[in-house]
Amino acid sequence: MQPDGKILVGGYFTTIAGGTRTRMARLNANGTLDSSFGDPLINSTVYNMVLQPDGKILVAGQFNTIAGVTRNYLARLNADGSLDTTFVPAPNNSVYSILLQANGKMLVGGYFNSIGGGSRTGIARLNADGTLDTTFTANTNGNAVLAMAQQADGNFLLAGNFSSINGTVRNNIARIAATGVL
After folding, report:
1. Stated pTM of the model
2. How far is Cα 62 from Cα 25, in angstroms, rounded to an integer?
3. What pLDDT, on the 0 to 100 scale, is given for residue 148?
């Protein structure tokens, strides 16, 4: 839910609340379609969305185009639903989870092994512009991080179908430090 009470929804739909919207929409607080938010025309499933403090929206999923522009698996929309063309992290496979940090950086989890111009498997931290934060060193054994949470102490909880993080056995759940080490 947005601060103004409006609700962002994503999935694999093409109509919602009596209107046409492709995989993502914004609803007014009463459940009606918000016509001021355009149809982003996402070509496949949206798994996760995160609202940034500036009103922009991070979108993760199985898609590879938004509004006819190539955007593989992770994109950022402007507050009106249009594509933010400055954000191009380009993961090479699905992104399932996004966790926005207070400093503007974001953790992303999914089935990728390259993202933001670098090599990371299953989990990565990106800078606000979508480039890889090389100070974060976590990698899975090739399987996905599907959900994440940040603890009060700054560490992260990860859940997914992985069996190791940074080569250490961790079956489906792990706790890592803010730098990505166990």
Report:
1. 0.95
2. 17
3. 97
Burial, 105: exposed, middle or buried (Cβ in 10 Å; 0-12, 13-18, 19+)?
middle
Please name the helix (run of DSSP H) or strand (run of DSSP E) that holds residue 155, with its range, or none.
none
Q: What is the torsional sign of CA 164, 157, 76, 61? A: positive
Distance in angstroms (rounded) separating the CA atoms of residues 33 and 54: 22
Q: 93 and 105 in contact (C-beta within 8 Å)? A: no
The label of the residue with tokens 């792990």 reads: 174
Query: For residue 171, which amino acid is it?
Result: N
pLDDT more than 70, % of the chain:
100
User: What is the distance between the alpha carbons of residues 126 and 107, in angstroms, rounded to a whole number?
Assistant: 6
The token pair that represents 169 in the structure block: 């056995």
Distance CA 134, CA 147 (A): 21
Spatial separation of the C-alpha atoms in residues 121 and 13, rounded to whole Å: 29
